[in-house]
Each structure stands twice: as C-alpha cells, then as structure tokens.
Amino acid sequence: MMKTTTSKLAVLGIALVVVLVILPLIFSGKLYYMGVLTTAMALSIAAAGVWLTFYIGRINIGQGAFALIGGYACAILIMKAEMSFWIAMPLAGVFSAIIGVLIGYPILRLRGVYFAMITLSLTETARLSAQSLSSLTGGAKGIINIPLPGALEIFGFTLIPDFSTIDSHLAFYYLAAVLLIATYAAMYRLVNSRIGWLFRSLQQNEDLASSIGVNIAMLRVIAFAISSFLAGIGGAFFVAVQQSVYPNTFQVQDSVYFMLYCFLGGLGYVFGPIVGTFVLFLSFEGLQGLNEYQPLVYSVLMIALMLWLPNGLLSLGEGRRDKAARSAASAKDANVADSDAKAKG
Amino acid sequence: MSILEVRQLTKRFGGLAAVNEVSFNVEAGEILSIIGPNGAGKSTLFKLISSFLRATSGEVIYEGENIVSKAPHIVARKGVVRTFQETTIFKEMTALDNVVIAHHLRSRASLAGFYWASRTAKEDEAQFRESAEEILNYLGIGHVGNEIARNLPHGYLRALGMAIGLAAQPKLLLFDEPFAGMNHEETQQAVKQVYGIRDRGLTVLLVEHDMPAVMKISDRIVVLNFGQKIAEGTPTEIQDNEQVIEAYLGREDEEIGL
Amino acid sequence: MTEQVIVNGIYSGVQYALIALGLTLIFALMNVLNFAHGQMYVLGAFVTYYVYGVLGLPFWLALVATALTLGIVGVLFEKFLFRPVLRRSSREESSMLLAAGTALLLESLILIVFGEKHRGVPSVVSGVIKIGDAYLPMGRLLVIVLSAILIGGFILFMQYTKPGRALRALAQDREAAQLQGVDVGTYSMIGFAMGAMLAGMAGAMLVAISGVNSGLGTWISIKAFIMVMIGGAGVVSGAIVGGLILGMIESIGYQMLPGGETYLFIFIGLIIFLAIRPHGLMGKPWG
C-alpha cells in the first residue's frame, strides 16, 4: 500500500518535472513543437469533460459545441466588454457550464445512441448559431485580432506579465500546463471521492441508483456542467492562442476526436483522456510527412488500437498488473495444493 | 395502522387501462402480496407505487402524505424502497460496495463534503461499510463481499438485491418477484429471508407469480385481473374465492386455446 | 409556390428515407450506430461517378456496381471489424467508436482514390414535367421512382422472404433468434451489407442530380441521425417517416428562410421534440 503511494508520487513528480522544466527547455524557441504541445494540453482539458460524461454512462459528441461557446464567450467579453482575459476565460467556462445545464437537463434523460446523436447535432447547432448571430459573433468572418492576454495584477503586484511583452509561446505553454494540472488534479479527486462512486452507480444502473435515493437527474446535470465548463475553458484558451475565432474553429470532427481520444486512452482511467489526446494528436502531427496518406494511416492506426486494446492504452499497465496478480495467486494455489498433498501424505 | 393507502390508482397506456382504479391498504408490519395472471397489471402497479411510472390518476398515501408520481429518489428518501429482479445490480462493483453505496440516503455530508472527504463523510463511509458487512452476513452472503457482483451466481444476486434494498433503510420494502425462477429449496431460503426482513420491523409488499410461496408467506393478498382488483383477503380467503379461481382457470383455457 | 415546396419535399424526403433505412437496419440488427453511413453514401456516389461518368457505361450498370461495392464494404466491415469488437468488448460505446473510426477510414480512402474535387455526371434522363404549378425535372422524378422502388422492395423483402424474416427475428431479439436456429453471424453480415448498399444507392442516385465531393459524408450522417431521431431508432416505419418529414421541413425551410437558418431551427426543434418524445415518433424505449 505504502509502496504504491510512493511510486504514484514518484510518477507524478517526474511528470511534473518533465512538463514544467524539461519539455520547455528542449522545445523553447521551436515554435512548431511548442504550439503542438500547447494545443495537445488544451485539447486534453476539453477531453477530460467528455471522459466525465462517459463516466456517468453517456456518449458525449457535443464537446465541440461547448468549446465553441466558450471560445466565442471569451472573445466577445474581451472585444466587446473590454474585459481582461484573466476574467474572460473563467467567465467563458461558467457561461458554457450554464448553457450545459440548460441543454443538459432535458437531453440527459436520453440514453445510448439517442444521447450521442443529439449531442452530435449540438455541435452543428453551435456552428450554425455562430454563423447566424452575426451582430454578436461576426458571422462567417468570425472575430479576429483578439489581443494577447494582458498582465494579471493583484494589489499592484504583477502575478502574470503581459503576454505581448514576453515569449508568448512559452507563456501559453505554461498557462496550458497549469490549467491541465489543475483540471486533472480536480478530476482525480472527484473520481476517487464518494461522488465518483455515485457517478459510477449512474453508469452501471440509473434505475437502481434512483431506487436507493440517488438524485440521478441532478448528478447527471452536475457531471455535464463540469464537462461543459472544461470545454469552455479549453475553447477560450484555444481562441486566445489563435487570437481569433470562427464558426469552424470547433466542428463535428473535433467532437468526434474528443470522444476517440477518451476511448483510446481508456474510459476506465482518469488519465485516459490525457494519454489518448497526446498519443493521437502527436501521432497525427507526426504523420504529416505522409501528405495525403496522413489521414488514412491515422485512421488505420486508430482502428488497429481499438481492435488491439478495446479498453484503451492505459489498460496495458493493468494487464501486466493483472497477470502478476494472477501468477501470484496461482503460486499460492500451488502452495496450498502442495501442503494439502503433504497433509494427506 | 395503515402505512400505505393506495386510492383509485389508475394507469392508462393510450386507451388501455393497465391499472384501473385500484385501492387497498398496507398495514404496518405485514407482508402483503399482489398476485394475478400474466398481464393483469401487477408490475405496472408495482412501478406506480415505487414511482418508477407516473400514474394517470389516483393517490398513493404513505404515512399520511401523497407520494404518487414523485421522483423515485424522493420516494426512497421517505422510506419506500423497491428491489429489482436479480440482474439489476451495480455489476462492476464488488458485492460489498454495492451495499455500501446503497446507504447513500443515510449520508449526512453534502456533495462538497464528499468531494473534500470531510470528517462527516469519512465517518459515514466507515459506518456504512460496517453496516454493509452486517447486512451481507445477515443474509448469509458475507463471504462473497469482495467478489465483483457480475461474477456471482443467481441465488447470491437475489440476496444482494435484498441487501441493497435493506441498506437504504426503508420502512416499506417492495419486492419485485422475489421468487422468480427459483427451485423449491431456494424459495424456502428466500421465504425465510423475507420473514427475517419483516422481523427487523419492516413492512413488506411483494408482487409475485409463485402461488405456493405467496400462500405461505403472505398475511394478506390482493388479486388483480385485467387491471382491476378482484379480491383481497387472507390466503385462505383467496384460495376459496371463486372469482380468483375463475381468473386463473379462464386464463389457462386461453393459453391452451392458443 | 406551395406545390413546388411539396414536390421538392417529396424528392428530398424519399432519398432521405432510403438513407435512414440503411442506418436504422444496421442499428436494429447490431446495435451499432453507423457513423460511416454518410461516407458509404459518398462512396456509392463516387462509384457511380466512375462507372457512369468516367467509363461511360450505362447508368443501371453503375447502380449494380455501386450495390456490389458497398455490399462488399459492408461484409468486410462486419466480419473483420465489428464482429470481433462486439464479441469482446464489455462496453456498448466501443461499437460506436469503431464506427467513428471506420468513417475516418472511408473518408480518407475516398479522398485518396477520388480526390477532393466536386464531381458530377451528365443527366440520366432529360426533360421537365409540370405538376400543377410545380416543375419536376425528369432526373428528379427518376430518383423519386427508383427510391420508392428500393424502399418498397426492401419492405417486401423483409416481410415475405425467408432471409427477411430471419433478419426481423434477429432485430427483435438476438438471443431468441439464435435459439430458433438463425445463423446470427451470417445474417448480421447480410444486414450490414444491405444497410451499406442502401446508403450507397442513395448516393448513386444523387450524383446524377447534384454531384458529390469527398467532404459530404459527415453532413449526410448528421442528417441521417436527425431522421432516425425523429422517427425512432431501429424501426423501419420510423426511418421512412423521419426521412419524409425531414425532406418536407427542409423544403419549407429553404423556401421561407433564404439564409442558412433552416438547419439551426431544425436542430432547435429537434432538441425540444426529443425532450417531449425521447424515442421519436415510433421508437422503442432505449432502443
């Protein structure tokens, strides 16, 4: 027990050092690589939300919609309300969460493919809305020239410097890293708390859960709101990096990818979506040299992964542990049989 | 004293009345069974009382309060808890965890308390675990507490279902066909468990097919046919009731006719 | 004006019904939401484009080639991808995600083989007929007639032939069908192939009217999902009704809202509709 805790802490420590020190040292100044890593981290944040909806037994293909909502909310707050990015981003998350609650309440009653199909439609609805509400969103032309995040000061003390005065790529990288760590720390806590048990009870049997007094409607909405919040934060961050947002910034394909990232990482593991997002997003980028064959190789890779590891990449470690446990158990059985034989003899 | 009063309860699906103006009382501390031929409306009535279906009209008065068509978790909170047939469990959790989580209603901590693992939440958790073990032992399945539920054999699953119901600490426990698909021996065992539950001070209402078991276990019986109550009384009264005999025989003829 | 709207609605609706029928068939048989349905449609359109438009062979031959190609794709997908995954995986999500993967696969294959240009073919028939105040080009009439024949043929096949009955038994209850001696594996394969063929045929007919490009697939899939949500998943009548309703609403919308708002309103209406009727007009609960 002690040992696993220590080894977990060690893994966590190494991961933090890699993310916060080593990677930036290696890639600092290499804009493309910094950009890819930063994007992968932002996508991982939104993917965490999709994973949470999977966790309560719903297939969410609407994350693109909420990322788009968050992105536009952030852009509009900065451009029209002249708000600081540091206020606009959390507000964008909250706004996405509120929309998530309003839409989630009626549609979360749907299950299985019905929920999947309606969330898929949501992504398209968000895109079309962004196109139609042109007085607010600029229509198809989008919102462009969004300024970089300014300085964050509290009581005259500068917590974060103005991004335009420093290496903004590095600054965005660190911002994404901090958000990513905060997101997954919170998710880890959530899933390992009693709320996690309640969520699992929803995933396994909603009727039974409600029969023992669990307010399933409320818990579903809470999970969906958290999911939408994370999408909103991810979207807002993405828009800040791009300094622009268009109706096509997040589309159906992105929603489908979020879902695939979670699945391939492993739906049973909190860190599944990070692993899935990084492995897939980085391999997609890595395959760019293949030009027109890139999507083909990528999709074959994805299908092969699904066939090979139906429980996700992280189930690899599990398998090893299972095998170890099994061989230990069979060794014990053998011992018992031995001693039985001896007793009889 | 009546713990539950069902008044003129009706459920229509389209034009068809699956349950039609059914009224009866459940007295505190008794075992009351609802029986009837296939398609008589038993399970619809069961779902109406446990609020898993919304009623078209009528009332379900529990301890003086109308609980009809309220959300199932609200009804459970008030003390009316249903069980399911054996496949309805939290399949991927251990048997013990199934029962621990079924203590949910007794939690004193808030969701935030759960999240931060407040002291109350930790105390609750420890207490639930203890109580869950007690319940599993009581039902004679304590030794499989750490098995993943989906791997358990049938008899254990049914007992686990009962354990989940008990853990929610109901005053009135509703059983959905507790003896379905059992052989004679298993039924004997289950009947004993139901008696045991009553002896813990609970009132029991069950919907059942198995005639001999019902006759043996029930204090009183309500008989449904075509959505209507056709008889109510002690097992001996029901056995001699002509309408009941007719309902069952008539249905048998039909089945032969097919 | 009204008559034109109705004629347009029927024209789209019949094709849509054909698309939805394939989707619902696959869903009913295997509990798989076929994300690649739109890509199958696009593949069908491209095969017809190639056989009829490029090789210059007769249109009917192109239709046959399309049906064969999609049938083979369906068989391969079922046998080598869906069957192993459905057998092994404990979570219902896996088949859906696999379907999303196959959609990407088909789309990238189509892109490599046929390129990204929008392709059209010469009309199969020419001329226009007038119904009341509405004009209906002969090409569109042909689509309506062919679609109706395919839908009718499909229904007759399901009702009156032995394989049709086996497929229905399979859709109703997989285990029971197996106990009755239905060869579940073979019929799942046949069903999947038929679903793919129906999508491909719809695409084949459309290429003669409005052409096709490789990026169309996702949007077609979304439309198919809308129809299935309206009608109810896994129900043949639901697919047909859903298709006709979407065709009609779309036609009315395009008439009244010249901008791009038609689908915005359709989606909003759909969410409200599903909140009231979660399983569509004719669906089974939690199908």
Walk me through what this model shows.
The complex is a heterotrimer of chains A (345), B (258) and C (287). Chain A has 345 residues and is mostly helical. Chain A has a domain at 33-145 and 167-252. Chain A contains 14 helices and two strands. In chain A, a hairpin with a 2-residue loop joins β1 (152-154) and β2. The longest helix of chain A has 30 residues, at 315-344. The model of chain A is unreliable at 325-345 (pLDDT under 50). Chain B is α/β, with parallel strands linked by helices. Chain B has helices at 42-49, 72-78, 95-101, 111-116, 119-138, 154-167, 184-199, 211-217, 235-240, 242-257, and strands at 2-13, 16-27, 31-35, 57-62, 65-66, 80-82, 172-176, 203-207, 220-225, 228-233. Mean pLDDT of chain B is 87; it is low at 252-258. In chain B, the strands form two sheets. A six-stranded mixed sheet of chain B has the order 6-7-8-3-9-10, sandwiched between helices. Chain B has a four-stranded antiparallel sheet with strand order 2-1-4-5, covered by helices on one side. In chain B, α3 (95-101) crosses α5 (119-138) and α5 (119-138) packs across α6. Chain C has one domain (2-222). Chain C is 76% helix and 3% strand. Chain C has helices at 2-30, 37-54, 59-88, 93-114, 138-160, 162-172, 174-179, 184-210, 217-231, 236-256, 261-276, and strands at residues 128-131, 134-137. Classes of the chains: A mainly alpha (345), B alpha/beta (258), C mainly alpha (287). Chains in contact: A-B, A-C. At the A-C interface, α4, α5, α11 and α13 of A face α3, α4, α9 and α11 of C.
